Amino acid sequence: MISVHDKEFDLIVIGESMVELMCEGDVVNSGSFKMDIGGADLVVAATAARLGSRVQLISAIAHDQFHNFIRERLTAQKIDISLVTTCQESYNGLYITSTKYPEYREYLIHHPGTASKHITPTLVHNEYLDNSKIVYASSELQSVSPQTQRAIFNAFLFAHTNKIMVAYDPNVRLQRWSSFDEYRMNMWNVLPLVDVFFVSWPEESKWLFGFERALDVIGFLLNRNVGIVVVKMGAAGCMVGTERNIKTFPQPTDDGSCPFKTPALAGSAFNGAFLNCIANGYDPFAAAEFANSVALFKGIKGWGIDSLPTVNDMCKT
Hints:
Layout: E1 9-14, E2 18-23, E3 34-38, H1 40-50, E4 55-58, E5 60-62, H2 67-76, E6 85-87, E7 93-98, E8 106-110, H3 126-130, E9 132-138, H4 139-142, H5 146-161, E10 165-169, H6 180-190, E11 196-200, H7 203-209, H8 214-222, E12 228-232, E13 238-241, E14 246-249, H9 266-279, H10 284-301, H11 311-316
Parallel strand pairs: 1-4, 1-9, 2-7, 5-6, 9-10, 10-11, 11-12
Antiparallel strand pairs: 2-3, 7-8, 12-13, 13-14
């Protein structure tokens, strides 16, 4: 086992690489779209990398028309893609989203033979996990296939057994699952292995655990040996709990000169910023306060990987 001081990477993300198409009007009626890479897991990796973390991605990219574009954009974020495999007989996932209605997220997700089915247990080797301080995945990849579910479970089990921090976001996207019961089963399978659990309030936390209050969700998960529970509350900020303390952090306010464009993937930007701080020795409460600011920055900028802040951007705020 590699000591924490000798690890090459701060964060390893196991997740799906997708293409994002964003418009400013109604999705169906828009005549033009901006294109970038995207997806919840990829945004976590890109956020942490742009903030200075050493990030490695385990993923699969199809050799279709988007192949070079995805690889070039990932490399531009200084994400290590040496573990990203190329699939010859598949297509990359694609989703369309709009900024027209900033109060909610509008997604039309399309998976034409998704390349992420190739993220199998054989792609996730223990020596890669051992070389990182934190291992992260979400339910978005779990929803793809039984093989991706096993890949995440195996990775989390190895990390948990070898005292490597495990971070997880249940990221409820019910349209990607055959049933809610299947989704919940996969979430419960990995829960005993998780050190940092991100959950959104109120809908997601109520669906998963049946609690109306964020405080109750934190207590429930702490009692199940989750070390850090982060409840993301949108415009209300977040609540963070550890065995020693529970604190609430309101979302910072802007001066109104730059309106909030979209909440799409702001939660993933929050996750990446939070884990960037944890990997670099900050306590969970300082990490949460910083991550709130990063999520706000993403929401104001609106779309694409370039809407994620760099270290210099955050020094100016």
